Amino acid sequence: MIEEEDDKQKNIDEELEKSEKSEDSQAKSHGEILKEQICEGQKIYTLSTSSIIMSSLTAGLEIGFSYMLLCSVFFYYSDSLAVESLFKIIALVYPLGFILVVLGQSILFTEQTSLLTLPVLNRQHSIFSLLRLWGLVIFGNLLGGCLIAFVLVWIGPQLGIFDTKTIVKIGEHVAGFSLPVILVSAILAGWMMGLLSWLVTSSKDTVSRIIIIFLITATMAFAGLHHSIIGNIEVFAAFISGPEVSLGTFLSVEAVALAGNAIGGAFFVALLKYRAFVNNVG
């Protein structure tokens, strides 16, 4: 049995090695994308702990620019549009932070969830090493998000680009669902972010990558899906701005959103994409 598994893994590795990018090809094959994803994931496993934390901290900070813009747009149009319409319009500015993070190659948990899972599925790393890496990335992302939330909660009203009422409304909106709803919503968001990583790898130029990031993250925002990292900023900012959002609410929403995002990226993208490839390997 063990020998059969080893032979199967050897065949998988050989097939991945054959997946070399062709200059004449209009699109990358499934194997080419999978190989690049595994290689990218492998590189992150080789980074030092301090490098991973600093890169993920940077991602948490940079996502804050999305929050700054969505608060500004919400506040600017609050007198002329209904609240329901405002939560749809902010989808147009929601992608900015994601564009900065993905193109800048900072480590964002939801974008890297499936990427970091693939080397484990390919038997190059253990589940323990995956969970350790996820923990470091989540820590850096959440810390960066909380730090930028403190800054924006102060600077927004000072510059007159949004007020405390706007901060609280957005936070209440994100947290105002039952935990089962947040879980399923977060799974869908994690699924979409995993696809974002896959599609960005499949694209060949910066413009197409920006379009992919915009379409996927704007769709997430328009549908109101729960993203654990920018959601961390949205709910934490409301928590420190008033009594409407409690610490318990913040912690429970964030925990469920993280779990959902992890399930969506690891299972619906990494596992299914990987199995779709290896099932064709003899």
Describe the protein in words:
- 44% of the residues are buried.
- Helix content is 79%, strand content 0%.
- It is globular and about 60 Å long.
- Helix 3 runs parallel beside helix 8 and helix 10 (179-202) runs antiparallel to helix 11.
- The chain has a single domain, classed as Glycerol uptake facilitator protein (Up-down Bundle), CATH 1.20.1080.
- By secondary structure, it is an all-alpha fold.
- It holds the Pfam family Form_Nir_trans.
- The chain crosses the membrane at residues 52-77, 89-109, 130-155, 175-198, 210-230, 250-272.
- One of its GO terms (cellular component) is plasma membrane.
- Residues 1-29 are annotated as: Disordered.
